[in-house]
Amino acid sequence: MKKTALITGILGQDGPYLARLLLEKDYKVYGLVRRYSNPNFSNLDFLGITDRVEFVDGDMTDESSLINVLKNVRPEEVYNLAAQSFVGGSWDQAKLTTEVNAVGVLYLLNAIKSLSPLTKYYQASTSEMFGLGNTNGYQDEATPFHPRSPYGVSKVYAYWMTVNFRESYRLFTCNGILFNHESPIRGIQFVTRKISDGVARIKLGLKKELRLGNLDAKRDWGFAGDYVKAMHLMLQHDQPDDYVVGTGENHSVREFVEKAFSAAGISDWKKYVVIDPRYKRPAEVPDLKAKPDKAHRVLKWQPEASFDALVKMMVEADLQRLQ
Ligand code: NAP
Ligand code: G4F
After folding, report:
1. Are 101 and 86 in contact (CB under 8 A)?
2. Which of 87, 154, 209, 239 stands the most exposed, by the fewest C-beta atoms within 10 Å?
3. Are residues 173 and 275 in the same domain?
4. Which atom from ligand 2 is nearest to the alpha carbon of 126?
């Protein structure tokens, strides 16, 4: 018998990488998609797996749709990746962000509790929950949360609901507290992909400048393909728990820019970058750096792609796409 998994957020960045991993492990994969007049399967197409996923209709803001899906599929594992995940947009759409990222999680956990209580649940928690919080310059499972955006606040609610369902009802629920992870199918609004796409356009003469906000912010950037392995490992462990997942090193946006231009063979990057206040945030998270010792020790998880390899992979993919 094949194992069954339901992935919400299947059309985003992480959904396709996770689906590919599960298909390689011979799972039957269901993907939750919300109604769109023009749905976009391009990320699944990029990995060549669109035809191997079974799509089910539902929306995180519509409780009855989640109940129907749980009733019909009764998956052994649920990976809740759906979110309004763009931090920069969360001030303008704080209510929507809360409804999808926080209340939607409550709906999904309730549906699991009522209809499929043996289902194992993964919650896509985030380093944004730490915000200003750190422990001697890094963040681990014991670091206090101090979120800085409506997105971060919504994810703190979802984190604690996930813990609470584990403690109250003994459900198998886990939080993966993932630091930034990127790939050639990262959404174009996020800074890494905005840079790799912008650099490729400048290289090909399609664009003259790249407009960015705060270049001083530091992030612990890894490769999405490595991080979905940690999600899967959490649900295979004998005990449900919460884990920090990151590389343990961080770099500034400026360093990412420099490396991306250099990967395209352009050394004088300052000629092309314009600082635009529109891309600065009302409250910034200045510095994120994971201490993923628990994931190394308990899950035996290790990232493979280096920072340099990630930047190169993204710039090359955008050059190829545009050519
Ligand atoms: P993403 O590319 O933005 O994908 C999010 C997905 O959620 C999209 O497929 C989107 O559907 C779906 N979605 C949004 N609203 C929905 C709704 N109301 N009902 C159902 N689906 C909805 O995000 P990602 O980078 O893959 O990240 C996956 C998850 O990990 C997110 O929860 C994110 O917050 C979290 N996370 C990400 C990172 C990171 O660095 N990538 C780090 C930590 C945590 P459409 O395609 O229809 O828009
Ligand atoms: O790429 P970003 O938009 O990612 P951010 O805000 O760190 O959030 C991402 O990672 C989180 C995990 O820590 C996820 F939970 C979340 O869903 C998302 O995937 O911005 C990174 C940094 C920020 O400090 C931002 O201020 O880059 C800075 N930045 C500078 N110029 C910019 C820009 N960010 C964007 N998006 N666009 C700019 O022009």
Report:
1. no
2. 239
3. no
4. 15
Catalytic, 126? Answer yes
Q: pLDDT of 159-209, one tens digit each?
A: 999 999 999 999 999 999 999 999 999 999 999 999 999 999 999 999 999
pTM confidence score: 0.98
C-alpha 237/C-alpha 298 separation (Å) is 9
Ligand with the closest atom to the CA of 148 = 2
- What's 57's domain CATH number? 3.40.50.720
Tokens 């993923």 belong to which residue?
A: 292
Residues with CB under 6 A from ligand 1: 8-9, 11-15, 32, 34, 59-61, 81-85, 100, 124, 126, 178, 180-181, 187
- Would residue 17 show up in a list of annotated catalytic residues for this protein? no
pLDDT tens digit sequence for 195-252: 999 999 999 999 999 999 999 999 999 999 999 999 999 999 999 999 999 999 999 9
Q: What is the mean pLDDT of the chain?
A: 98
Asked if residue 241 and residue 191 are part of one domain, the reply reads no
193 CA: nearest ligand 2 atom:
1
Q: Structurally, how many domains does the chain consist of?
A: 2
Residues recorded for the chain = 323
